[in-house]
């Protein structure tokens, strides 16, 4: 069982969203942040690093946005749906941009393909959670 699930199971109040969906989104955000961070390091090790500058920038942005988003959605006390939805929508947009750019390099760099998959999964998870928030 994941730590987010364990923590949500111990929450002493009623959650504002489905615990399974929230857990899946937290996991997707953490996975995406990690994949983007690792991809930046891999990109910087490539011979053609100048061709990867946009990818590096988007991965750095995506990792930061995912990290902030996961921190905010992990807090349930004093929950503000407007803030959470806005942040999730921004995260989904960032993941889309990053995933598209990584996909562009995926044929030449396997690490970019892996990162693109993580970004696509995170984008989908964020959009699903936005749809579940009232």
Distance between the termini: 27 Å
CATH topology: Substrate Binding Domain Of Dnak, Chain:A, Domain 2
Tell me the helix content.
Answer: over 70%
How many distinct domains?
1
Order of helices and strands: HHHHH
Q: Please count the helical segments.
A: 5
Biggest pleated-sheet summary: none
Structural class: mainly alpha
Instruction: Name the shape in a single word.
Output: elongated
Mean pLDDT: 94
Which quaternary structure do these chains form? single chain
How would you explain this protein's 3D organization?
The chain has helices at residues 3-9, 19-44, 53-73, 81-105, 110-132. Helix content is 76%, strand content 0%. Helix 3 (53-73) runs antiparallel to helix 4 (81-105) and helix 4 (81-105) runs antiparallel to helix 5 (110-132). The chain has 5 helices and no strands. The chain has one domain (3-9, 16-132): Substrate Binding Domain Of Dnak, Chain:A, Domain 2 (Up-down Bundle). The chain has 134 residues and is mostly helical. It starts with a helix and ends with a helix.
């Amino acid at each position: 069982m994941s730590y987010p699930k364990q923590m949500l199971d111990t929450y002493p109040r009623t959650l504002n969203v489905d615990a399974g969906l929230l857990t899946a989104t937290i996991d997707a955000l953490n996975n995406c942040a990690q994949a983007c961070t690792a991809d930046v390091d891999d990109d910087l090790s490539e011979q053609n690093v100048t061709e990867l500058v946009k990818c590096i920038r988007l991965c750095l942005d995506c990792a930061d946005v995912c990290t902030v988003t996961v921190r905010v959605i992990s807090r349930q006390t004093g929950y503000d749906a407007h803030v959470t939805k806005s942040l999730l929508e921004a995260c989904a947009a960032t993941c889309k941009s990053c995933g598209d750019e990584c996909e562009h390099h995926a044929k030449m760099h396997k690490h970019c393909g892996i990162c693109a998959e993580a970004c696509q999964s995170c984008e989908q998870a964020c959009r699903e959670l936005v749809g579940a928030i009232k």
